[in-house]
Amino acid sequence: MSNLTDPAWWKAAVLRALYTAIAITIPYIAAVQFADVPWFMAASAAAVGAILSFATSLFGLPESGGADLPWWLAALERVAKTFGQSLAAGLTGAVLLTDVDWSVVLQAALGAAFISLLRLILATLPSDPTSPGVLAAAEEETSSLTR
Predict the structure, then answer these.
(1) Fewest CB within 10 angstroms: 56, 86, 87, 95, which?
(2) 63-109 pLDDT, tens digit each
(3) Rg, the chain, Cα only
(4) pTM to 2 decimal places
(5) What's phi and psi for 103, nearest 5 deg?
(6) Rounded CA gap, 2 and 43, in Å?
(7) Distance, CA of 118 to CA of 122 (rounded, Å)
């Protein structure tokens, strides 16, 4: 449990929980507007998703542990966790599995996974597309295509 005393871990865990809550909330906002889903369900799903994200962070965070995973593997892990957390969060308030509105919960989980993937892609884009390294790579790719 040395993670609990590491400020870098806390920062990464809180940011990841916040990103997960936002990714879960966005599809539920659409469900609130178009499928008459109560706001309470959207808020509770976001809160439960953030708690589950924080709980999974206890098992390790690549960004704070210094692990060097390939991008695709880290993205797959993050998207799968977001899908699972959103799916579990959508089950809150249900006593029986037949009480769950599966179409809303599955659509929200898929939407949250897509938003998580989109955020990961946007986070890896260069901050300045006009930097010399990016321009040189683009010119090299263009010249290799014209050969």
Answers:
(1) 95
(2) 555 567 777 787 888 888 888 888 888 887 777 777 777 888 888 88
(3) 19
(4) 0.67
(5) -65, -40
(6) 31
(7) 6
